């Protein structure tokens, strides 16, 4: 970014002159990934990777838990991740199809 200082009535006005603006394919805001076409494909991929990773980590303590407790923990992890910002998923199937 280039800044140009111009004198104006004994004060200086700052103007930002941008020759080129860099864009990005996706951006993260409050933990949610928005892509350029709002298809949420990057968010869904990141969400599924995160859930799978947490469930794999659960395998480390699984020998110390009974099946019902392990199942409850795994379900809680996935539900909490899906519930976060779930209002953004509303009518997603209409956008994708």
The dominant shape is: elongated
Instruction: Tell me roughly what share of residues is in helical segments.
Output: 40-55%
- Structural class comes to alpha+beta
The average pLDDT score comes to 77
Largest sheet: 2 strands, antiparallel
Radius of gyration: 23 Å
Adjacency order of strands in the biggest sheet: 1-2
**How large a portion of the residues is in β-strands, by DSSP E?**
15-25%
Number of helices: 3
Distance between the termini: 40 Å
The run of helices and strands is EEEEHHH
- Low-confidence segments, ≥5 residues, pLDDT <50? 9-18
Strand elements, count: 4
Please provide a written account of the structure.
By secondary structure, the protein is an alpha+beta fold. The chain has a domain at 37-97. Helix content is 41%, strand content 23%. It is built from 3 helices and 4 strands; from the N terminus they run ββββααα. The chain has helices spanning 41-58, 67-83, 92-96; strands at 2-8, 11-17, 26-29, 32-35. It has a two-stranded antiparallel sheet with strand order 1-2. A two-stranded antiparallel ribbon has the order 3-4. A hairpin with a 2-residue loop joins strand 3 and strand 4. Helix 1 packs antiparallel against helix 2 (67-83). It is elongated and about 50 Å long. Residues 9-18 have low confidence and may be disordered.
């Amino acid at each position: 970014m280039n800044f140009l200082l111009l004198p104006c009535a004994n004060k200086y006005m700052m103007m930002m002159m941008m020759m080129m603006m860099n864009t990005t394919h996706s951006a993260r805001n409050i933990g949610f990934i928005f892509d350029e076409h709002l298809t949420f494909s990057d968010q869904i991929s990141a969400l599924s990777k995160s859930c799978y990773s947490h469930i794999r980590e659960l395998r480390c303590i699984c020998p110390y838990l009974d099946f019902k407790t392990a199942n409850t923990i795994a379900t809680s992890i996935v539900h909490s991740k899906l519930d976060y910002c779930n209002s953004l998923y509303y009518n997603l199937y209409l956008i994708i199809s």
